Amino acid sequence: MTHTLLDTPHFTGIGRRTSDGRHVVAVSLRSYLSVPEIRAALAETLGEEAGGAGAAGETEFVVLHADEAVDADAVSDTRLATGRLHVMRTPGSEVETSLAERVVSMMTEDAVVSMTDSVADLGGDSLMCLELSEAFIGQWGVEIDPVEIFRANSLKELAEDIEARR
Predict the structure, then answer these.
(1) Which residues 6+ apart lie within 8 Å of 80 measured at CB?
(2) Which residue has the higher pLDDT, 8 or 131?
(3) Cα 161 vs. chain centroid, distance in angstroms?
């Protein structure tokens, strides 16, 4: 099994291909990055290593805690089975697409957003949740409390909530 060591100004990491072809990476952050920023940095780093074939859509990753080592155990099958991986998932429905577009418009220019991301993953705060709540009323006539928006486990779950309330 071949492991790829990553060393960027923002994080160190280790990655590998699983037996089913997924690319999994464990990263230890050197500075704060939101999940979309990590995904964009991984796409850039892994794309360079693969000769420009960007890897954001294929890469699953876990952010390690400060006391966890960046070693082969961080991406072992055992660890991957128990850890929450950030997986790239594109929008499927019209509501998901509109929601993702709204969220991306609120993010940094290079953010790569997945429907598996939560507002917290995205670095969202109370202002972002308030803006989203107001946008939901304007776009879909759906009122969702900003606290519920922040507590949603993923953008997909939030889109399902919007669709259920329409």
Answers:
(1) 18, 24, 62
(2) 131
(3) 20
